[in-house]
């Protein structure tokens, strides 16, 4: 057989192997921001990845401020969710966990100024979350928390305040932890910071056009890294 024929056969074998390769599976554990960009992200990556979320989307959409279903909530809620897998030694088929928590942690009581989850507890929770995911032998990608516009957020009566200074502090803490473990970080904060003030559909969530941009940004990160 000539060299050219051998080369063609090898190419056909490679194409066949790639065609038969199963898609990697991505599990998204995130807050309501991820609910809003999720449908776009799922569409963008469906050729290469199977996409699923923690819990039920219908339950999450009822009230985006109230963590339920696919809305994973604060870091303690995420940790409790993952402990279920860790403590029972259950395995599941996801290859990659796309993770975020932070917006629900920085919820601030208007009377006492107390955070829902203190910065120290947030750090501890994130470290414990990492250890569980490491034990489960899953690839972790961290997505940091999106910006808050103080004047917009705190002018709308939702029962709690948020401040962008807290977003910066909690993101910095998360960056420090995940960088120390060499976990890839999607800097959705910096990307979304460039959006205009009218990108918000309410106190903290983004209009669909901007959620779509966020999904594209995350998609490019994942595909460029070839996870």
What does this structure look like?
This protein is of the alpha/beta class and 227 residues long. The protein has one domain: Rossmann fold, CATH 3.40.50. Helices cover 51% and strands 10% of the residues. Strands 2-1-3-4-5 form a 5-stranded parallel β-sheet, with helices on both faces. Helix 2 crosses helix 9 (208-225), helix 4 (75-88) packs parallel to helix 5 (119-136) and helix 5 (119-136) runs parallel beside helix 7 (164-180).
Keywords:
Rossmann fold; five-stranded parallel β-sheet; 10% strand; alpha/beta
Total helices: the number is 9
Order of helices and strands: HEHEHHEHEHHEHH
* Helix content range: 40-55%
Shape: globular
Strand order within the widest beta sheet: 2-1-3-4-5
CATH topological fold name: Rossmann fold
Assign the CATH class: Alpha Beta
Q: What does the average pLDDT come to?
A: 90
Looking at the overall shape, the CATH architecture is: 3-Layer(aba) Sandwich
């Amino acid at each position: 057989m000539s060299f050219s024929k051998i080369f063609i056969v090898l190419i056909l074998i490679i194409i066949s192997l790639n065609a038969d390769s199963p898609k990697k599976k991505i599990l998204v554990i995130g807050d309501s921001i991820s609910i809003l960009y999720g449908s776009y992200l799922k569409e963008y990556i469906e050729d290469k990845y199977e996409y699923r979320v923690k819990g039920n989307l219908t339950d999450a959409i009822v009230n985006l401020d109230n963590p339920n279903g696919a809305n994973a909530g604060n870091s303690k809620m995420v940790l409790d969710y993952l402990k279920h897998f860790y403590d029972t030694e259950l395995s599941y088929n996801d290859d990659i966990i796309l993770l975020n928590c932070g917006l629900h942690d920085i919820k601030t009581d208007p009377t006492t100024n107390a955070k829902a989850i203190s910065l120290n507890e947030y750090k501890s929770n994130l470290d414990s979350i990492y250890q569980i995911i490491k034990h489960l032998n899953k690839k972790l990608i961290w997505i940091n928390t999106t910006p808050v516009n103080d004047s917009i957020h705190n002018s709308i009566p939702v029962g709690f305040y948020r401040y962008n200074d807290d977003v910066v502090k909690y993101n910095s803490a998360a960056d420090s932890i995940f960088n120390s473990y060499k976990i890839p970080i999607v800097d959705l904060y910096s990307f979304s910071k460039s959006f205009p003030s009218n990108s918000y559909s309410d106190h903290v969530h983004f209009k669909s056009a901007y959620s779509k941009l966020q999904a594209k940004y995350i998609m490019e990160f994942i595909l460029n890294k070839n996870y």
